[in-house]
Amino acid sequence: MPAKNSRKPYSPDSYRHIYNRGVEKRKIFLDNQDYGVFLSYLKEYLLPKNEQELLHKLTSPTISTVVKDQIFRALRINNFADDIRLIAYSLMPNHYHLLLHQQSANGIDTFMNSLGSRYSRYFNKKHKRIGTLYQDVYKAVLVKTDEQLLHLTRYIHRNSLPLALKDEVLRGSPFLFQPSSYLEYIGKRKTEWVHPEEILKFFSKINPSLSYKSFVAEEEMMDIIKDVAIDI
């Protein structure tokens, strides 16, 4: 029988909580370069590709062979900017969480298959290993309500904070956490391919007690999060 959340009856214009972990719970990110490469793939897939500009650069008489190869590579890479929006993410040593919105019925499936296989090839080549990187196919949970959507972003961002440091970090100490979209949500960083705006519209920009940061810092987690929490 398929594992829970492994079957994905996709529908257009929907949100999904996507997650996966390493085979046998092994690490899928071993250093900062691994995190950076995974994030760079997200960026390449989710930022609009200006093919006309890339083709125009190829006509330059001074273009180097290296740059030309980079342009050809960029033209070949899949792009999902018209279909997929990344709402939130967190990357942990042995697993990841992505909150995605898709326009088409199968956009997320195509996107995740491309991302997963591409990162697996990179990881296996760099770390001189063979075989499956992930424990199973990625899992996908349909997000059904605004309330579930809000609490899911909190779950994802809190997941990226070390358990021993969560309370201290959220009270304003230095942010010592795994790569995540939390900085975009509290206005400390702006990234074109991360879209916190549809979540932040539910929170105040001027009242700290009603801010997103305050929401994440709340200790209690409502029962609704049980629908999307997982045993990593």
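(the above was protein one; protein two follows)
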Amino acid sequence: MKPYYESGGITIYHGDCREILPGLPADSFDCIVTDPPYGLAFMGKEWDHGIPGVEFWTQVLRVAKPGAHLLAFGGTRTFHRLACAIEDTGWEIRDCIMWVYSQGFPKSHNLKGDWQGWGTALKPAWEPIIVARKPLVGTVAENVQKHGTGAINIDKCRIPSGDVVSNHSRSTEAAVSKGKFGDSSAQETHQTPGQTIGRFPANLIHDGSAEVMATFPDAPGQCGRARTDRGRKTNKIYGKLNHVAGSSVEPRGDSGSAARFFYCAKASRSERGEGNDHPTVKPLSLMRYLVRLVTPPGGTVLDPFMGSGTTAVAAREKYFRFVGCEIEEKYCEIAAKRLAQECLFTG
């Protein structure tokens, strides 16, 4: 099939992904980052009347490299069906990221009369992002060496912590992640004394809005070495330290809202691009973070439900290749225009 758009490592196909994916080579994509239909008939859109089932994810699995990660957005009412379809296809469910935001609008049928004040729905404030992985070939280390996939980019996705880094009592050896799939001896996955690379990424992302920030309590930073006079070390201590007479107590570190422990994906007002009327556009900063999390250097991102191309723009900004499918031609056109505008800034 001839691409609708092709430039600078970005390829867009107009059509049903079930017809496009069979023509793509097997074991060729490093990751899949996508926002499929939620099956809620959102705003009466025809494309949102069904949850992508096993037939979709079977083709996606075929074209993914062994160990490739899949990140798929879902709706809170229907993501269980999406997760089951993904898992039934052969993907391994690894986690579920919670994206918390404040812009959701309650679609409630509010009653009147004697039942004034009653309604039918809550205000949406978060969306799940299913994290899955194609089965490995051998251990994680072996799969990464052969295919470049199987692991996630922890260090490049750490949460900035400024100049203050919590002290940890882990030794360098203890900081190396160990598991049944092998040891990550080449990378320290937990902070050790002297590291200033930020906090470990979590499975919660927020939008930094005032409404969301207000839900997080104040939380002092973690302290790994509370007392130095007796050489005692403690880990995972939160709250105020007990000052003991005659002891030397190290400073706890930073303080403030607990929101600082999680990645903040703020959306700019202008990032949609002129004329983009797609109803479910995701923040560009969120998509940048997600593609960076699961794509190896120089890798290729697949999005079988591309929409208006936010994932494509994010991939280009991070110097990844991208292949997307979109069934609505007008959204292909919007994506192509956004990418053309992006070229003006990225060269």
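Reviewer note on protein two: Residues 329-346 form the longest helix (18 residues).
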